[in-house]
Amino acid sequence: LRQPIICFRPIRPSDLEILEQIHSDLFPIxxxxxxxxxVVNGREIVSWAAVDRSRPNDENDELIGFVTARIVLAKExxxxxxxxxxxxxxxxxxxxxxxxxxxxxxxxxxxxSSLIREVIKYASGIQTCxxxxxxxxxxxxxxxxxxxxxxxxxxxxLQGFYLINGQxxxxxxxxxYVNGG
Length: 181
Ligand code: ACO
What we know:
With 181 residues, this protein is α+β, with helices and mostly antiparallel strands.
């Protein structure tokens, strides 16, 4: 079996089709066309792609994993109240992880962990940034284990946060503090 050679790079416009495909394969939620356009064009969204350079030439730049995130103002976020947050410093920010995924054939190789580390590194480099946070559906045990392993703290359970095919599901809100958060 080939040894994968995993590299990380920004997401680009040419990734649009595969990015949409993987999202619809991995997530129970539908995302708007505008979301994918914003991701590939880096419009208000930061993202990282994982690729396997050991694959044949026509596939060695194809996405096998991704993370997408957005910078939000702490005062406009739902977690302003749990940060050691100075209301005089109204420019404080957070990084909100929107989506994270790794295609099945590449799971359990540490790729998602590396993608999250990229986000944490990025957030730590923003002076105004106090935390990285995200929502995860309450039955997604692999993802919950991953966030706990990465030292994210579960700070809230939000009842009926997700609506999928007419069913409500709870979510956990996970936070990773940076810069003295
Ligand atoms: N069962 C239980 N725990 C798991 C599993 C699993 N099948 N897979 C990963 N984990 C946990 C473990 O704690 C693992 O650590 P360990 O190897 O030391 O035991 C840890 O995750 C790290 O694993 P990685 O290899 O870094 O994770 P991977 O690259 O496999 O990706 C992911 C994990 C992203 C959750 C993947 O399974 C996936 O894409 N799932 C479908 C999409 C999804 O659920 N995304 C997250 C939704 S939340 C959000 O997007 C904000």
